[in-house]
Fold this sequence. Notes:
three-stranded antiparallel β-sheet; 9 strands; binds magnesium ion
Amino acid sequence: MIAINIKSKTYPAKGRAGQHLAIADFKLAINANEFVCLVGPSGCGKTTLLNIVADLDRDYDGEIKVGQVQTQSKIGYVFQNPRLLPWRTVRENIELAIEDNPSAENMDTLLDVMQLSQFQHVYPERLSLGMSRRVAIIRAFAINPNVLLMDEPFVSLDAATARQIRTLTVKLWQQRPHTVLFVTHDLREAITLADRIVFLSSAPMQVVREIKVPIARHERDNEQVIEAFRQQLLHVQHSTT
Ligand code: ADP
Ligand code: MG
């Protein structure tokens, strides 16, 4: 479904001459409707990778193939920051994303699921961070994407809100399957969400390890099960490095 092959991605080096090699010889294949979590240290190149997959960054050497026919894939992107337009209401921000899109999801249903119906005519400055993030998630879901990119979407939310939105994200994914690439530095979150976790190294970013999460979906809200698997992963990681 998504074949990523990045030979190299460089940035101008900060504060010195030359180039910073952010990504090198990076290959990753993602199956249709798979939920993949990318876990890696801060600054390793995760956001860079999502921007390349989203076709927002073409300044790299390599190739990304999305879907069978390039033009048929719709990509939803939940950025690291919500990026709402301040002069548009919640509803207008979402409407902007689904303009001219005949297969758009029913916005009212999504507003309802995300518990934002009462706030749809409010401007972003009146929203809490958690609400803004929920709007950004609706905006990405509303276009009915085949591919959903999520860049640390639940960072800096309180634990209860994060848990609630995580559950909703999985619910929406189960209702209407699509491929998800989800960036997080939180291993518990990755175990809770992913079919497969891909561990990344710092620059130049490469895949260091991949694991399938063998926990049934209905057991994922059991924190003890998640923690036990996390311990198992950490143990393996230590004994092999
Ligand atoms: P992550 O999302 O994993 O934290 P990023 O993809 O944001 O990492 O950044 C990867 C590396 O590339 C970092 O070293 C960062 O400083 C550098 N970088 C990112 N964007 C730019 C840019 N626009 N110009 C120069 N360097 C950048
Ligand atoms: Mg980032």
